[in-house]
Amino acid sequence: MSHKPPLVLKSPQELALMREAGKVAWQALSLMEEAARPGVTLLELDRLAEEFLQSEGMTPSFKDYSPPFNRERAYPAAICASVNEQVVHGIPTDRKLVRGDIVGLDLGVCFRGYHADSARTVEVGRVGKKARRLMHVTFESLQAAIDQCHVGRTMRDISRAIQRTAESGGYSVVRQLTGHGVGKYIHEAPDVPNFVSAGPGPRLVPGMTLAIEPMVNLGHYDVVSEDDGWTVSTADNSLSAHYEHTVAITETGPVVLTGEPEPE
Ligand code: MF3
Ligand code: CO
């Protein structure tokens, strides 16, 4: 965490580049969501995303990146794919998806030196009611956080919105991992916690760009790291869901840089 680049405010020109990256992230996630059928492997989804980025003249931000929380190991793939009780940072393998799985798909896109970071949890075939509701509440917690992204509010307003939404649904929010600033680097200051702790945190100002990413568990909030050095799973093996958008703070309110592109 302490190695994180400082908080960088972005100009409208920089936000425009991040929006271009964000559109491609949205499209790549949608392609993968469509492709995530029973029998498809996680590596096939990874290849699909990487080839799409390449065709758009963009690069995957995660590939070969060593983040502040894992300095020793460069990440080996374009996407993270986290299945069922896996929370985040699942490395794509030849594991085949099966009907009823939920899979968190996470992708960073870099365009002309600017990054956008986004994730969604998708269902494979038809999933059960428990999984569906967990996904829905986690998505709602991200929306509630985005609704707080106005100049003059504080980081705590974002964290509180996520925690309230998730816990009112009967779930717990992961505490060992947070969202983050994003833009010039894939991970920048400030941290964006998904739960409230001491102090209001930084005030939101125009030009801030935040990757807000609630990770919500059906059971306890404790998580563990798997032996591959990356994959994070729930400690109690309960299901987990994850959604992430890159959001710009502007004078006129939140702009979701990784949202669905307007039809041309
Ligand atoms: N969205 C995730 C995060 O911000 C993805 C990180 S994968 C990594 O933590 F390779 F970039 F570390
Ligand atoms: Co992120």
Report on this structure.
This protein has 264 residues and is α+β, with helices and mostly antiparallel strands. It has one domain: Creatine Amidinohydrolase, CATH 3.90.230. Helix content is 27%, strand content 25%. The strands form four sheets. It has a five-stranded antiparallel sheet. Strands 1, 2, 4 and 5 form a four-stranded antiparallel sheet that branches. A hairpin with a 2-residue loop joins strand 4 (102-111) and strand 5 (114-123). Helix 1 (12-35) runs antiparallel to helix 2 (42-55) and helix 3 (129-146) packs antiparallel against helix 4 (155-168). The termini are far apart. 2-amino-4-trifluoromethylsulfanyl-butyric acid binds next to strand 5.
Count every beta strand, where a strand is a DSSP E run of 2 or more residues: 15
Number of helices: 4
Question: Which fold name is given in CATH as the topology?
Answer: Creatine Amidinohydrolase
Give the CATH level 1 class.
Answer: Alpha Beta
N- and C-termini, Cα separation: 40 Å
CATH superfamily: Creatinase/methionine aminopeptidase superfamily
Q: How many domains make up the 3D coordinates?
A: 1
Shape-level CATH architecture = Alpha-Beta Complex
Rg on CA atoms, Å: 17 Å
Q: What structural class results from the helix and strand content? A: alpha+beta
The ligands found in this model are: 2-amino-4-trifluoromethylsulfanyl-butyric acid, cobalt (II) ion
Task: Strand order, main sheet: write it out.
Answer: 8-7-9-14-15
